[in-house]
Write a structure and sequence with these properties.
Distance between the termini of chain A: 44 Å
CATH superfamily of the largest domain in chain A: Winged helix-like DNA-binding domain superfamily/Winged helix DNA-binding domain
Oligomer: homodimer
Helix content of chain A: 40-55%
Largest sheet of chain A: 3 strands, antiparallel
Strand order of the largest sheet of chain A: 1-3-2
Largest interface: A-B, 36 and 36 residues
Chain lengths: 152, 152
DNA sequence: CTCGGTGCAAAGAGTTTGCAATCCG
DNA sequence: CGGATTGCAAACTCTTTGCACCGAG
């Protein structure tokens, strides 16, 4: 798989084309599902929802599409502690945010409160760490674990 | 499994006993392996190393011991991005630290540089977030992703 | 003696792969 | 038309479970 860098294209459809990929019914369905949800869906959950749009789609296509979107930087794969991956669109309406993960029900809550201080510190850390460890930092993961209101 | 809180016991051996568990050759081997390594081993890697100490040990015991130690708060389970879990002793010589994760080779590097500022901010965040989201925060995960020096 | 602990084999769960058929452009 | 994409089933990987035997205390 090519590690595609095709910036600026407004629509995912265009980005696929620009990367030499094709837009298909299956991919459209996956993207639609991701755009319409507020939650962090697993591959399987995306599968169920995508089936409603396109009954012929297979789980394999979900995985392959997610992998492509992930490579393109359009979706982020999250780790919620249970064994399956969860996915969120990178460029949904949401801005930069981090996660609260419930250890009991594995629910993931986004937060973007108070995030400016966080981001400022992170940028500094990135600079210092990449210098000290000669490490090319491309991203970060910040999560707080605990028990959510519903589970308490 | 009991969610054991038996503070203050100096040795893991004692902590096991204090929790109503038994100390066995298998558990000793797992603990020894964890104490002697500087890396973040997977269950399988721990298995190989433990086999050297105790050739009769099975992979199952590794998993079950790690689960107990994890419940007791003696080991932390890490997520490196590849699908298997990695483990580190909570009370090794290392103090509080966070991780740099190489996306290429999945190596995890500990850092504890500049960590005071980080921890200070985290504590603040925890306070604010737990209030706003009514979320009982028990821990956090901070990781930077990128490409390590060896992989560049 | 009592129960917790063990190894083994088998089961699970999530994800990936091989392949022939199909579809996009 | 040519190569990318797909669904299906099978393969894989890591982890968990059932069970009969073993052993710590």
């Amino acid at each position: 798989m090519k590690n595609c860098e095709c910036p600026g294209a407004e629509k995912l459809h265009g980005r696929f084309r620009g990367c030499g990929y094709r837009m298909t019914a299956g991919r459209e369905a996956v993207i639609k599902v991701l755009q319409e949800t507020q939650e962090h869906l697993s591959a399987d959950e995306i599968f169920s929802k995508a089936r409603v749009i396109n009954p012929d789609i297979g789980l394999t296509t979900i995985y392959r599409t997610l992998e492509k979107l992930s490579m393109m930087g359009e979706v982020h794969k999250l780790d919620s502690g249970d064994k399956r991956g969860r996915f969120e669109l990178a460029n949904s309406g949401k801005g930069h945010h981090h996660h609260l993960v419930c250890s009991r029900c594995n629910r993931i809550i986004d937060y973007d409160d108070f995030i400016d201080d966080e981001v400022r510190l992170l940028k500094e850390m990135e600079k210092k760490l990449s210098k000290k460890y000669n490490f090319a930092i491309s991203g970060h993961l910040i999560q707080f674990y605990g028990v959510c209101d519903k589970c308490k």
